[in-house]
Amino acid sequence: MTAGYPLCNMRGGLTVVLVALLLGAAGCGGGEDPAAAPAEESAVEESLKLYVFECGRLRFDTVERFSIADDETDVRELIVPCYVVDHPDGTLLWDGGLPSAVAENEGWGDNNQRLDRTFAEQLAEYDLGVDLGSFDYVAFSHIHFDHVGVAGELTGGTWLVQQGDLDAAFPEGPGAEAAEPLLDNMRNLERMVLDGDHDVFGDDRVQIISAPGHTPGHQVLFLDLAETGPLVLSGDLYHFRLSREERRVPTFNFDAEMTLESMERVETFVAERNATFWIEHDLALFETLRTAPAFYE
Ligand SMILES: [Zn+2]
Known about the structure:
With 297 residues, the protein is α/β, with parallel strands linked by helices. It has helices spanning 5-9, 14-22, 119-126, 163-169, 241-246, 256-273, 283-286; strands at 49-59, 77-87, 90-96, 113-114, 137-139, 158-162, 190-194, 198-199, 206-210, 219-225, 229-233, 276-278.
């Protein structure tokens, strides 16, 4: 309701005065009576921000292992992003890019991987108030090397990991050697083991959605951004647009049937929430995005 000032600001008129009286507006003569001020609109929600980083690139001679014939797409290069979610109650690192050692390559090196600037260098340069020791939460969409690159450099934060990926990461138990050496360090972090979806900050705005199949504990991330709107980050549910259009399951996935079920579940969620969906590895999409220090909110 906007009783009070708008009426008082109008020039005279019995009707206006009467309406003001009926509405209980006081102090029309003085004009500065705080009691007559319009009620504050409901408190504006503190901003949720998403920062997008380039954390490497991969290229391929053939895409057949993604169950795509080489003549079905011209795409041979994938982007490898990292994301920082800045919520009023804390920060979340989502996906950790290529290992920082890849940055020692000149360009593509000899393994079709490149990393022009490490995530740590970018964080330091952009001065966003976070570093590899200060995240409140760390979550990887899954435990493949191109998503856990900074795992060995993290010195703080709670690791949000599905039981399936924890078991795959440490086949002999969390105290024993990791399947992927980069993950050895993760045993030193606090850990929250998930068995399904998880509302990270308890207000529905940042949700981990379980989507197993690519790995046993693969997951995607949902963000409810005030301006950008609802958004889902794919993890490796799909690598290519064609993978999504035709539900192609890579030959190297942990479980093809489980992957298809997860695709169905996530697509239903995306449709219900009317969410934008970003295929994380999609280079053409990435080139249209705002990258850090710019952000989405
Ligand atoms: Zn990947």
